[in-house]
Amino acid sequence: MKIKPIWIILGIFGLFTLWFIFAAVGNFNRMVTASEQVDNKFADIQAQYQRRFDLIPQLVATVDMNAQNEKEILTKVTQYRAGISDAVNAADIDKLEGLGTEIKSTFALQMEAYPTLKSPDAFRDLQAQLEGTENRIQKAREDYNSAIKNYNILIQRFPGNMFNSMLGWGYEKKEGFKISTPEAEKPVDVRKEFSK
Questions:
Q1: Would the pTM of this model clear 0.90, i.e. be above it?
Q2: Closest C-alpha among 17, 48, 66, 61 to residue 177
Q3: How many domains does the structure of the chain reveal?
Q4: DSSP string, 70-136
């Protein structure tokens, strides 16, 4: 039995149609995934900027309050030890004794020991948080640009580019991360935060 050429042509056309359908569906799904990854990575950048916006002023305020508190403690202890106080200026012995008792009980002074200052550690922790925050933002930008690159390669590579244009999917090349305003990329000026 001899196979007619029409059946061969129909068979080839059928195989080509199946390949076309499976290839189109596969490429479409990859483009959707890549596009969603780009959107997700951009959202990660925004989340890191929001984290910086929320976190840094709070950290600075905490460190500043800690430093101010320690400054007051150290000033009072130093004044107490040097015999200087508002009570002396007012020549009120009762105030001087009251101040001495308050300082002794508040700071639990031991013999000639000054309180241990924690603010240098707080400033180091703040510096580490600032560095970590900026590193997170940089990593989010790199991840976004990497997702953009993968997406752009996918929509420009054959056969994806063919399916995209033939079937009108509308996937277009995207640009990498760019700063929308010059202020957006600038890290928080901690000096301004401390001066508030």
A1: no
A2: 48
A3: 1
A4: HHHHHHHHHHHHHT--HHHHTT-HHHHHHHHHHHHHHHT--TTPPPPP-HHHHHHHHHHHHHHHHHH
